[in-house]
Design goal:
alpha/beta; five-stranded parallel beta sheet; 13 strands; eight-stranded mixed beta sheet
């Protein structure tokens, strides 16, 4: 190793000569002065870099970078044809994986702001300071190591990230709690750590659906927002016999803002570190806390049925209110509950009215009433029913967005029933 390389290796940042059995990094050098280009070529080679190309102006630097795909491009601030910053902008657009480094005599925040906007990854002084440049390369090396690490790949894998699902609807009595409870049980049945949260502060039904009695409720946490951590929050978790964890908004009627937005936001942030799946049974109120939960969800299930037009009308109004303003359309999932051959309306008419596909159907299941009266023991209680099959299909479609959508069995209607739905359709999109 030469004295020059030893000097750089000992500089703060610890850049090591990559010729010692380590993959060498490639660089394009852009400098208008031929003599300076040659000096930089020799210096950077001694530093352990392979010189992929030498450019005399900004345009040539862009062309070489696109052709040779180096790891770095060093751009002198005085480049002709295209300035260093113009070249960096073009390189960022064409080769986003290449790190552009600006070499300049200028200083100050204005330069740094301009360089950042142009896509420059780092700024070093001119004439080139070996220790400073070694630190810059060491930082890039650490970033590359992080990008190649298993932890980083896990971070970018959507299947490894926690997911929040909200179940709501335009009115009560359409099966929101049934759907939220069974979805949570199906997620837990998959073997993943899951928590179900009854966000109702007035007349929530999750406790009765699971035959549980709340001991602590989330409304108690509103005055303690700054103190909420897992040590505190875990005391509000109730464990169901299935292994599902459950949290309750309140155990008696309270004002809608009994759980504040800052409180809910903190709760969700803490739960994301502990659970793979978080399911909210969300009240049909356009209240700040409810809207905040919906806006943070990976998917919002809007539940309606095909029995009466008022339910569909209310759900359509909720859909229009949420669409874009609080929840992007791709995260809004229409779920039609209690589907059977006697339904008055047709799925295709619902889709035409909403301008949105029905994401899932849940069949009418006679066992639901009995199970609600006694409390769901686990997903096993409905596993062999059509309801259980639909819950697993819904679960798998939510947890594997790239996979198939839930199967949508056909429903039967008569032509006379289309006239009933035409009146409903006219309410939203006008006749003719």
């Amino acid at each position: 190793m030469s004295a020059l390389t030893k000097q750089t290796a000992n500089a703060k940042g610890g850049f090591v000569d990559t010729r010692q059995g380590i993959e060498r990094r490639r660089i394009v050098v852009a400098e208008k002065d031929p003599r300076q280009r040659e000096r930089l070529r020799h210096t950077l080679f001694e530093l352990g870099l392979d010189i992929a190309g030498l450019a005399g102006d900004g345009q040539e630097a862009v062309q070489m970078t696109c052709l040779l795909a180096p790891d770095f491009v060093l751009l002198d601030d005085g480049l002709p044809v295209l300035s260093a910053l113009e070249a960096a902008s073009a390189i960022r657009a064409a080769c986003p994986d290449v790190a552009s480094i600006l070499m300049t005599e200028r200083e100050g925040p204005a330069l740094l702001h301009e360089a950042m906007r142009s896509g420059i990854r780092d700024v070093v002084r001119k004439p080139l300071d070996l220790a400073e440049f070694g630190e810059s390369l060491a930082r890039f090396t650490e970033i590359r190591k992080l990008q190649n690490s298993a932890a980083f790949r896990t971070l970018l894998d959507p299947s490894q990230l926690p997911s929040v699902y909200c179940v709501t609807g335009g009115k009560g009595g359409v099966g929101k709690t049934m759907l939220a409870t069974n979805l949570a049980l199906a997620l837990r049945h998959k073997g993943e750590k899951t928590v179900l949260i009854d966000l109702y502060t007035q007349f929530g039904d999750v406790a009765s659906a699971l035959n549980m009695k709340p001991q602590r409720t989330l409304a108690e946490l509103a005055p303690m927002v700054d103190d909420i951590d897992w040590a505190l929050l875990s005391r509000y978790v109730h464990e169901h016999q299935s292994g599902l964890h459950v949290m309750f908004g309140s155990d008696r009627p309270l004002p809608l803002d009994a759980i504040t937005v800052p409180c809910l936001d903190r709760i969700i942030n803490v739960l994301k570190r502990e659970y793979k799946y978080i399911v909210f049974d969300t009240p049909p109120y356009l209240h700040a806390t409810t809207l905040h939960a919906l806006s943070l969800a990976n998917a919002v299930m809007l539940v309606c049925n095909l029995f009466d037009y008022t339910t569909i009308a209310d759900t359509k109004q909720l859909f229009d209110t949420l669409d874009g303003a609080y929840v992007s359309k791709d995260r809004l999932k229409l779920v039609v509950n209690r589907v059977n051959a006697q339904n008055k309306f047709r799925l295709e008419d619902v889709e035409r009215t909403f301008g949105h596909d029905v994401f899932a159907q849940v069949p009418n299941e006679p066992k639901v009433v009995a199970l609600l009266n006694t409390g769901y023991p686990s997903h096993e209680g409905i596993k062999d029913t059509a309801l259980g099959e639909s819950m697993r299909s819904l679960r798998d479609s939510l947890t594997n967005p790239g996979g198939p959508r839930p199967a949508l069995p056909l429903t039967t209607t008569t032509r006379k029933q289309r006239g009933v739905f035409s009146a409903l359709k006219a309410m939203f999109i006008g006749a003719g």
